[in-house]
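DM from R.C. (forwarded with permission)

"hey, sorry to bug you on a friday — could you get me a structure for this? deadline for the figure draft is monday and I only need the backbone to look sensible"
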Amino acid sequence: MYPSSASNRPTTMGLNGMVTTPHYLASQAALRVLQNGGNAVDAAISAASTLAVVYPHMNSIGGDNFWLIYNAKTNELKALNASGRSGEKATISFYKEKGFEKIPSRGYLAANTVPGAVSGWWEAYQYANKTMGNNLPWSQLLETAIGYAENGFPISPSQEMWTKINIDPTDSEFRNLQRFEGFKSTYLKPNGEPYKTGEVFKQPDLAKTLKTIAQKGADAFYKGEIAQKIVAELQANGGVLTLNDFQQHTADWVDPISVDYRGYTAYNLPPNTQGMASLSILNILNQFDLKKIPEGSADYYHLLVEATKQAFADRDKWLTDPAFVEIPVKDLLSKQHGKDLAARIDMKKAAQVVTPLDPKGDTVWLGIVDKEGNAVSLIQSIYHDYGSGIVVKGTGVLLQNRGSFFSLDPTHINHLEPRKRTFHTLNPAMLFKNGKPYLVYGTMGGEGQPQTQALLVTRIVDYGFSVQDAIEAPRFLHGRTWGAASNDLKIEGRVPKEVIYELVRRGHPVNVVEDYTDTMGHAGAILIEPNTNVKYGGADPRGDGAAVGY
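My reply, with the result:
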């Protein structure tokens, strides 16, 4: 029913369960959990912990995560926000008095938010244990991650590339991470060279940390020796986090947000994530008849880029921690607002400056569906590749730099305040059909996440692409990628020249990039066929992932 192009990977099919992650070792770890009787949440924890070991340049237990969890027993969709808040001592004056006009992107001052990932694993596990059944023991879920940390694994091409990029001695502020002893001793060889693809990489300190978490749960990370080591090193180097910050941290259940799309219901996470931007793009596209617009045409790319601009204008005006500002999400995602934004799009000309209407009224993604129909869409990140660059001695924990996204301008919507969650690019997604999950999907890639999500949904729903074909088809990226600031329109070189010429003619600042570049992120998706219950999984050739089923 969902054939793949002969030139692409085949779409993976399975009747009992399906897993897709951006690294094949993590996919295998999750599949083993499902085959051993664990549920989708168990499998997600196994995959996420494994990714924190085998994909350290993109995520870590020192980062954050966000979850969408569908419970087949209760027919309920739950959303979990496991992002960390800024420290109690993190203030604008703290940085300004040190002479900073912006928070440093790297180093100890960039690590100013509590890592939330482990709390997300633990909270999701407790929920599934109480409501889903078929739980495996907590300690068993971390066994694969511990094994790869302790015994090693072959370095991926992605890790080799991003390590080389991040030891550039000419970029002293953003790259040049070997200046941090923890990074140097963890991710480089004793001679200072990066590991090469296929060489075995071990992380003994991280193995010990994961063993402690496996034995004692999340409290071991937030209230025990691990937190003490992290805080001690940060404070010894001028950092702001305190033991109290760790002890007070919580992952929070929140209500998912949604919009209608062609009779389906698209779900995402509410602020502080940019899930509202992902849904806003679909809300705008819902006002257009895509059957009259050929997929892959200049009109197709133009429309999606222009819808992205409109959605991002609203996002940039409003998005921050909703505990500090009342964000009119309901109005921003209303059908009328979608119509108003759609009316601003000129199909013949690219908008150069987009201001928000007043409302009326770097990263891994993984997906799991188990035999019972439970589903997980999970995204986990440290923000920039290798995060803050700080690996805490004796723990193997690489700390994120997500808090560097806070503004030091007190009038900015996302300005720094103590115990505040920053604007997060992370947003896992699901699309429901007749009240049940139909498409579990997501991607890494900063600002590219809402755009790639829209490409996946339109190609599958509007144009009938197979899951794998939708993932592999050419992609674009309007705006900036993680770790860089640019406002051009990056388009993969496989897009026909006549389409690119037409986009340039309409005013788009097109930058043609290489085919299958991971600048476009690592996407994945699982489609559940309602009539047969067959699960169709896809993984991105731009990454090192695999979709596996049984």
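R.C.: lifesaver. The two ends are 18 Å apart (CA to CA).
me: no worries. Confidence is low (pLDDT under 50) at residues 357-361.
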